[in-house]
Design brief:
Distance between the termini: 17 Å
Mean pLDDT: 79
CATH architecture of the largest domain: Roll
Number of helices: 4
Shape: elongated
Order of helices and strands: HEEEEHEEEHHEEE
CATH superfamily of the largest domain: Diaminopimelate Epimerase, Chain A, domain 1
Radius of gyration: 20 Å
CATH class of the largest domain: Alpha Beta
Length: about 180
C-alpha cells in the first residue's frame, strides 16, 4: 500500500501527544510522496487540538476507455450519472484474451486491448449521488482497476469541498470507511 492515512494520523497523534517531536509539524516519507502532519491548537490553553494532514497529490490521467469499460463502470455504480472518469498512477496497457477455449487453445482468442489502472476516480453528478450510491461490488471487481474512488463536489453552502467513497473489492475491502 502506497499510503495509509489512518495509520499516519495515529502515528502523528502519538508523536505529538508524547512530545517525541519538538515541532508542530512532522513529515512522513511514503511511497506516494511526502505527507505533512501539522499539530493545530484549537484553543488558547492548548487543551483542544487537531491534526491536519496534507496528503501528496496523486496525479490523474485521461484515458480513452472502450465502450465496454464505460458500460461496466455505469453498471458497477448502479446506473449513477457519471460525469468523468480518470485513472490514477501510470496505466499499464494489458491485453485481455477472452473467448479462450477451456484447454487454452489459442485458436478462438480475440484480443481486446484495454488499460488497467491502480485506481479510478469517478466523478458523479452530486454529493447526494455519492452518499446514496449503492454500488455493485461484484461489478466493481470486474473493472480494470485495483480500486475505485467515487466523488462529487459538495453542495453550495456546504462547509466541505467534496465527498468521496472508495471501493476495493479485489482486495477484500468492500468500502474504506473514513
Amino acid at each position: 500500500m502506497d499510503l495509509c492515512g489512518h495509520a499516519t494520523l495515529a502515528s502523528a497523534h502519538v508523536l505529538f501527544s508524547t512530545g517525541l517531536v519538538g515541532s508542530e509539524t512532522v513529515e512522513f516519507d511514503t511511497l506516494s510522496g511526502i505527507l505533512t502532519a501539522k499539530h493545530l491548537k484549537n484553543d488558547d490553553d492548548g487543551e483542544e487540538s487537531s491534526i491536519e494532514l496534507d496528503f501528496p497529490v496523486v496525479p490523474t490521467y485521461e484515458v480513452n476507455y472502450i465502450d465496454d469499460d464505460l458500460s461496466l463502470f455505469s453498471k458497477a455504480l448502479n446506473g449513477a450519472t457519471i460525469l468523468d472518469v480518470k485513472a490514477t498512477k501510470k496505466d499499464l496497457l494489458v491485453t485481455i484474451f477472452h473467448q479462450l477455449s477451456p484447454f487454452f487453445l489459442f485458436l478462438l482468442w480475440e484480443p481486446k486491448s484495454r488499460f488497467f489502472s491502480n485506481g479510478l476516480q469517478v466523478v458523479l453528478s452530486s454529493w447526494e449521488a455519492v452518499i446514496d450510491l449503492k454500488p455493485r461490488l461484484d461489478e466493481i471487481s470486474k473493472c480494470p482497476c485495483e480500486g475505485m474512488m467515487v466523488t462529487a463536489a459538495a453542495s453550495d453552502g456546504s462547509t466541505y469541498d467534496f465527498c468521496s467513497r472508495y471501493f476495493a473489492p479485489r482486495f477484500g475491502i468492500n468500502e474504506v470507511i473514513i
